[in-house]
Amino acid sequence: MALALGAAASAAMAQSPLTFKFGYGLKEDSNQGRAARVFAERVSQLSGGRLKMEPVGAAKLGSDDAMQKAVSAGTQEMMVGSTATLVSVVKEMALWDAPFLFNGVDEADFLLDGAIGQQIMGKLPDKGFVGLVYWENGFRNLTNSKRPINSLGDLSGLKLRVMQNDTFIKAFRTLGADARPMAFAELDAALRSGAMDGQENPFNTILSSKFYESQKYLSITNHVYSPWIVLASKKWWDKLPKADQEIIQQAATQARDFERRDTREEADRALKNLVEKGMQVNVPTFGELSRMRNRMDHIYARDIGEKVGLPLLLQVQNELIGYRDRKRK
Ligand code: TK8
């Protein structure tokens, strides 16, 4: 009898899938949400249903910052969020905050997926995380409810929500904005109430988060390329059998490829949709963008250089120069 029960129990255990959560901040109807669902599907397929990932969107598990704490502590298994928010824990992530670093998404893929991206991910385990892949958030653009940002002066005094990240705070204060850090999860309410005049995010997010309902002006600055990073809790990960780690890593890579394709396809359409929704779009002149860029130059050396180390920053420049040379040939 006991034997039979034991066998039944272990058969049930073999069948009941290992369930874990994957948190993200945007709405379910967003590029993040679509990719999260693909990720979950792939985990299920590759494990024959043995592993069950539950995507939980709309910051229902908490803001990026709160999820990071939970993942590092081991009370939440997985998440995807901005590398920018992670800098307070893993300072080398500041590399991805460098304004105007990449000329295109191909350059971002090259660095993120190459040795440098891996090297930076290598700093995560000490802080309780395992980094699996980088997803594309995208090039960031400014929106606000007051005026088009055509020149530096237009940013003056604007209450601009920025991510909880030193470089972003400093960069936008340098440009004259009244930059204030705030969790993304609180942003929509702050824009609607007027507590904040503006924010900056890629077209996809401006659309999926419905920021067009509170923001009249969209100024295309492409001032920084933002990655998202897929993180697992090291405490949890280390207890998984190697085969399961491999399945999750493989599914993450497949979901990343889907996510980048989907995000890129959506970006142009999103801009058109935002115009249809009534946003007024402008592009600052090359001269004005150059002025912004020059103002931010010292951020490289003082802020990012200090966090990631100047040798790595030079290595990045070197790799990018090599990449651009090869592309021209
Ligand atoms: C979503 C955020 C968002 C980011 C931000 O949770 O905070 O502005 O761009 O994508 O991670």
From TrEMBL:
InterPro entries: DctP_fam, TRAP_DctP, TRAP_DctP_sf
Pfam families, per the entry: DctP
An example Gene Ontology biological process: transmembrane transport
CDD domains (UniProt xref): PBP2_TRAP_YiaO_like
Single annotated GO MF: carbohydrate binding
Entry annotated with the keyword DNA-binding: no
UniProt keyword annotations, A-Z: Signal
PANTHER family assigned to the protein according to its UniProt record, in alphabetical order: DICARBOXYLATE-BINDING PERIPLASMIC PROTEIN, PTHR33376
Protein name, as recorded: TRAP transporter substrate-binding protein
